[in-house]
Model the fold of this input.
Amino acid sequence: MSAVDDLSVGTLRFLSVDMVEAARSGHPGLPLGAAPMAYVLWDRHLRHNPANPKWPNRDRFLLSAGHGSALLYSLLHTTGYDLALDELRHFRQWGSRTPGHPEAGHTPGVEATTGPLGQGFAMGVGMAIAERFLANTFNREGHDLIDHRTFALVSDGDLMEGIASEAASLAGRIGLGKLTYLYDDNHVSLEGGTELAFTEDVGKRFASYGWRVQHVADGNDLEAIDAALSTAIVSNGQPNLIIVRTHIGYGSPRQDTKDAHGEPLGPDGVRATKEKLGWPLSPTFLVPEAAGQHLGESLGRGAKWEADWNARRDEYARKFPDFGQKLTEALSGTLPTGWAEGLPAYDPKSGDVATRDAGTAMINEISRRIPTFLGGSADLNPSTRTYLTGGGEMGLDGGSGKNVHFGVREHAMMAIVNGMAMHGGVLAFGATFFVFSDYARPAIRLGALMRSKSLYVFTHDSVALGEDGPTHQPVEQLWSLRAIPGLTVLRPADANETVAAWRLALERPGPAAIVLTRQKLPVLDPAAYPVAEGVSQGGYTLSEAGEGPVALIFIATGSEVSLALAAQRTLAERGVRTRVVSMPSVEVFSEQGAQYRERVLPPGVPKLAVEAGSPVGWWRFVGESGGVIGIERFGASAPGPVVLDRLGFNVPHVVETALALLPPEQRGTSSTAR
Amino acid sequence: MSAVDDLSVGTLRFLSVDMVEAARSGHPGLPLGAAPMAYVLWDRHLRHNPANPKWPNRDRFLLSAGHGSALLYSLLHTTGYDLALDELRHFRQWGSRTPGHPEAGHTPGVEATTGPLGQGFAMGVGMAIAERFLANTFNREGHDLIDHRTFALVSDGDLMEGIASEAASLAGRIGLGKLTYLYDDNHVSLEGGTELAFTEDVGKRFASYGWRVQHVADGNDLEAIDAALSTAIVSNGQPNLIIVRTHIGYGSPRQDTKDAHGEPLGPDGVRATKEKLGWPLSPTFLVPEAAGQHLGESLGRGAKWEADWNARRDEYARKFPDFGQKLTEALSGTLPTGWAEGLPAYDPKSGDVATRDAGTAMINEISRRIPTFLGGSADLNPSTRTYLTGGGEMGLDGGSGKNVHFGVREHAMMAIVNGMAMHGGVLAFGATFFVFSDYARPAIRLGALMRSKSLYVFTHDSVALGEDGPTHQPVEQLWSLRAIPGLTVLRPADANETVAAWRLALERPGPAAIVLTRQKLPVLDPAAYPVAEGVSQGGYTLSEAGEGPVALIFIATGSEVSLALAAQRTLAERGVRTRVVSMPSVEVFSEQGAQYRERVLPPGVPKLAVEAGSPVGWWRFVGESGGVIGIERFGASAPGPVVLDRLGFNVPHVVETALALLPPEQRGTSSTAR
Done:
């Protein structure tokens, strides 16, 4: 270890220690143990440009063990990212750029939000898939414009999480040779030694997935780490795991103990650690000049890498103008101009259509118009119907096509979709049955928190899926997802709303969940109904029928819109005039101005929400005097129409419930209401 | 293969095929391929008594690949469980006992509800842990009263799910030698061949977890399967995986294709299959006499096993009367008489207490009173504080104690808790941070669906956890869990409510989630407030303060109850009389009679709900004219008190919001309301 290496590692270690100490909160153990490997990676291998954290061809680095955030902030500060020392001094404080766990969009250079364990591991796989797909799509002989690596630092906690197993197995299958993970193997977890719960042979496990596994016996041996990284970055078509034996809290009185985990060392501990490792006790937040200069050389290297790349990109654009434009468009994250012109429209006369099938048509339409649209399902393509015809396969027979076969791995799938979205350049979706959104919920939440442009597709959206029974029938999922801040949930009522919903999902910022039926639904006539504009407002007046003022308003979503329309017709026949509001997105509707919302849902008019799911959130819209026809139990195994009928989703029950909300004199002729 | 073996396997195969055909829905592929291994297991190894599916020492069998339910129903019917042939004829129909996926409590002999992949795998691990713990607790030299095995049939889908990896690694660590899983290795998943997404070396992977792995090359070779099972059931301290190469849809025109997966074979396909395998075309639902007689011998064997066991139990009870009584109590599933007498009570004068710490005291109290209470955390004991002092360790140094170190595996943890609960005899909990309830959500849902007596403990229950930031701060979790039918969610307001909440969790049927704070909270004086009775009603009038009629009602839960009380005092000072309702459980409150509910929350009085989480479900309680102080964004990294304050959880904001809900003349003196 040269003097400047030594000084640089010490700088990263003690900036981190001082941050945690100043905050009186945080994890000093990981930075002390893992600083050497992070240093070698960043100093000798990572190709990035601190002056432009958005340079498209940069290597990606993820701190999957997000609790070690102080180490990442130390790296970002010292290598020249726009993260002042003063931000490090305000670690974990309100308004600082140095939150407790790394947050993408909050701190320059943070590629993805991490902390919930395993998420970073899986997102890295997504980034490597995105890179491979973009390289395959755009690179031309002699013009490897997209050519970067993805690195992560992972912990025992990451590797214990099931999502990491899912992602690792898939990465092995696809053969992501540009993926390299450093495993901070410190033998200590939060409860104590990893032998409490984690005695598996990690190397053997990853070899079983098809990874190339290397071991570094001493986490302070920079040259051994360097050698392993040098081997790893020469791709042999396998993802790489480098198992580095480290010591949590290295050099501190708490070294190799669980107490190095989630607490500051305390003044005495800091003093002892600095003395032990030969670091000046003061000033705190010390960046010795030589270390600062050395680490800061990243800026010069980065500027050169980016300038070289820009020149190559310009040459590429001259040589392949069409591709050049498409690449620029893709990397800009904007949709191609006019991409949505002439989208499909469905005619009611052509028969009923399941919204999953309208979804199939739409994603294939999108795929034709947007060359970087890709995705797949968690081994359910025949049911979710989310295959991109002619799109090729990702990772089969060496291919790098658009159809990703995620396997029965919902959680990793959605995290990988997040990783692809955070990589940029691609537009990615994952698909499964709606009830299994639960399996992917932590990834969906993280997508919402990062505002990643992730597309979560869910079919089989209610008890109407029928025979598979309550294990497969969603009930509480709609409101559970609507409760996640920043997620747009879309449940279109028919094929035409599905087209509009997909359009909205692509054009709005942040992630969207698109929730589709298994069963066929009547098509709403776009000539008669303001479907496209209505969907863009989240909720809208679909239909008014009958004579006189509106006596009642139905609020319905998805498959229940046609039920509400049928109830409306029955009520009209008996002289009761009602309005049907279709509400494909509660979030989008809630963003509209009060004037619009009150025009659609005027106060004082009785309201009845109809949705084949938990009623939990509808009371905000129907008020105390309103009603909700929902489901407050689990479903049952039987043909879908039977289940719907038994649970009250039939015209007589809806009509009866509506009439009961009206004063007797407004109930029209031949009342059947109790 | 003897003639009767052949006939028995054929019976299982074609009962399943005919069921799927009659329902025009279901999965014929798994039963055709896996019937031989299921037959050998049930006929030659499984110790059970079809006449008493609740015999405590029976071997457990789980069909983790729940989509093959027809095979399980065929086994149950033919071996003598109370499942008539007519039920098989009504497979997947409303009201039948043969739902699309196996449902515990619905069909005799179904040990756990399966279908969502990986859940059965993890629950089996829980059952094996429960067996080991009970054996350790109750068995005495020469009296191995608890001594049974746990088997499961698992599919590629199970093994792809992360939860299975988590559970498998933990099972290896603990050394569950009585666990044996048969892997139906048919090389076909729903999208196509498993090579699409699942090329890992499964045997090597399980060996890396510490499992004993065996291979059976031909899934129709009964003797090879028998030999592997015979090896597996002689414990060497390792869990067992037997990888059996099978052919999905064996014998049918769809053999070895994905089309054997989720669809009936159709009349032609059924005919071709029966012809190919030499089975009579009619009658359908054929149980040849010899097969029926042979398979039915399970009844005789089972009766003898149980009678022998009963005799041994009686002898045990005579010899160890104290243990005998405790065993009877444990196996009955009832709590010890008077278990709740003299539970701890907290005095406000002794200072503030975090509800997680009151929880620590309470679980240790429970553990002292209930010998079969066990559990642990997902590597967070130092933070969740859920260690059972003196309870010993599960699986460390050969021990079988009460503290289970689950590792960072929230999903498997809660499924294992479910498995322990479904095993019976024990009362089990799992613990993690509240935000990570998302990781375990599919298991929590399944617990609610099965009504398993599972205890889910969550600490760090709001943004008040502070510096760890939005990745760790729950927001939408409370209402997301409350939306799950049949789950009791408890968020106690102080130490005394925590005692009452734990009591309620134990005494109510079905699973409960107990949601606790990281931060200290004032203690509600049990002499002044009706805490214990109030909690048992879910919500109750905690406090009324001021002069005159009640102008406004606060509804608060958990840490926000003391905030509401503080606001109440401020309002009382200005002459505004308010009520504070503490609502530790929305579900329990909603079960109370209308009279009680309207006494606590009378219509016509303005209401303001205060809860540091998503407001989504509170509108049902506060109505259109009410208000909710909640959180409709993600949190932020900063000290907890700062985050709470910035998000509006402070007395001035609560007072101001309350006043704004009142007509001006009721706002009292020195109004600060806008």
